[in-house]
Design brief:
The protein is of the alpha+beta class. The chain is built from 13 helices and 6 strands. Strands 1-2-3-4-5-6 form a 6-stranded antiparallel β-sheet. Strand 4 and strand 5 form a beta hairpin. Helix 4 runs antiparallel to helix 7. The longest helix is centred in the middle third of the chain and has 38 residues. It is elongated and about 120 Å long.
Length: about 425
């Protein structure tokens, strides 16, 4: 009996030694850490390329139209894609982080590796360390893009849009047909010289006025931008022609005017140039410029809600990377069969939920219906609560360190053995 008691006393320490040895081997950047980080990096790269391509697909179609049908230089269009890319990355990086963590930890869980590690004394918190580290790195990268790269790229894209206006790539004018892309206007050009942008044989039907209809016939003309700004409407300057004005209410009223030069203001409609031009000015400002502009507007008694929203977004989107990485690990372990397809579906669903909340909060905050900070940070707070709940639910057995849990189990085992021996005696 004494030998059996000694054996029971010796057994728990040997199991404890195994768990402690495993925990000691899992130091920072251990083999398991490097394996998880490699898996996350591969899934992250794949997700980033996929999500960014999908997000830019509409712009890509318009840009391809510029190259094929409008004769825009390929290098200029590629530069435009490069300038639009930073804004897209601030949206797609958080989605890619969630996909990477879900796919990696889902695979570990589906193959039973997570159960083996946890039963060997490795806590959920230690298992999550690579995911949290990955979230911190992507948070810093997104913060750098959002605060430093994106404002400069937005300004550069507007400058490039102005160059495209100057090359007439965005005007959609074609020879020998009535061009109706401009709201309220029908423009016919007999000959267009793309080298210098001059037009010959011009006929314009202008129905924008509520009272009169204008018919412009001119021998030649050229396209202009107002004050060299890309976001302003295009001007069409025609020369050596006639202006015919007829009344809508009284058909008998008619005027005919000759002119040497006549400036006609037109709007480009829903073109790529106008889409970029509609980007709020806050996206072009860095942190210092935003703070200065907000202070100036508040001092003047105005409302700087849109700028305040933009200021908070520069920090909220990067922080989302860390929160989503904290959600991904416990969620994948809980699901246990989160393959790449399931991970993709979950990441898209959570990202859509997040960006719907963000768009709603941004809209309400920009109009002053709620505090701008609350509107922007509410999605992060919501996902943060979900992340904490998942971590606590999945890791509730791991509140104590592995070594302390092993010692407690050994003490309880010895207590049960002693009680059994007393009853036997």
């Amino acid at each position: 009996m004494t030998a059996g008691l000694d054996a029971s006393k010796a057994s728990p320490p040997r199991r404890a030694d195994v768990a402690i040895a495993l925990t000691r081997r899992l130091r920072p950047f251990s083999l398991i850490d490097r394996y998880l980080l490699r898996e996350m990096a591969a899934s992250f790269a794949l997700g980033l390329v996929t999500f960014t391509f999908v997000l830019l697909m509409d712009q890509m179609m318009r840009l391809m139209d510029l190259i094929i049908n409008k004769g825009a230089p390929v290098l200029v269009v590629l530069r435009l894609i490069f300038y639009v890319l930073p804004f897209s990355l601030t949206v797609t990086i958080p989605m890619s982080v969630l996909l990477a963590v879900l796919a990696t930890y889902g695979r570990v869980s589906s193959e039973g590796e997570a159960i083996v590690l946890k039963t060997s004394g490795l806590s959920l918190y230690r298992l999550m360390a690579p995911a949290v580290l990955f979230g911190i790195v992507t948070t810093l990268a997104t913060l750098w893009i959002s605060t430093l790269v994106q404002p400069d790229s937005t300004r550069a894209s507007k400058t490039l849009i102005h160059q495209l206006y100057q090359t007439k790539a965005l005007t959609s004018l074609e020879e020998g047909v009535f061009n109706t892309e401009y709201q309220g206007l029908a423009i016919y050009v007999d000959h267009l010289k793309k080298q210098d942008g001059t037009l010959q044989g011009i006929l314009v039907i202008d129905r924008r006025s509520q009272t009169d209809q204008h018919l412009v016939i001119a021998q030649e003309g050229k396209l202009l931008t107002k004050n060299g700004e890309a976001e302003t409407p295009i001007g069409l300057q025609v020369s050596k022609g006639n202006l015919h004005i007829s009344s809508r209410d009284d058909p008998g009223r008619y005027r005919n005017l000759d002119f040497e030069t006549y400036d006609l203001q037109v709007s480009t409609g829903d073109t790529l140039g106008e889409a970029v031009g509609r980007v709020r000015q806050g996206k072009e400002m860095n942190l210092g410029e935003l703070r200065a502009q907000i202070a100036q507007i508040n001092k003047a008694g105005g409302k700087a809600w849109p700028l305040q929203v933009e200021l908070h977004k520069k920090f909220a989107l990067p922080i989302a990377c860390l929160i989503l990485s904290a959600i991904g690990a416990p969620l994948a372990i809980r699901i246990k069969k989160a393959n790449r397809g399931v991970s993709l579906a979950l990441s898209v669903a959570i990202a859509v939920f997040y960006y719907i909340l963000l768009a709603t909060g941004e809209s309400l905050g920009s109009r002053g219906q709620i505090e701008p900070a609350l509107g922007v940070w509410f999605p992060n707070l919501t996902l943060g609560i979900i992340a904490i709940s998942l971590v606590l639910a999945e890791g509730r057995e791991a509140f104590l360190p592995a070594r302390l849990r092993t010692l407690i189990r050994a003490a309880l085992s010895l207590q049960r053995s002693a009680s059994s021996n007393k009853r036997a005696c």
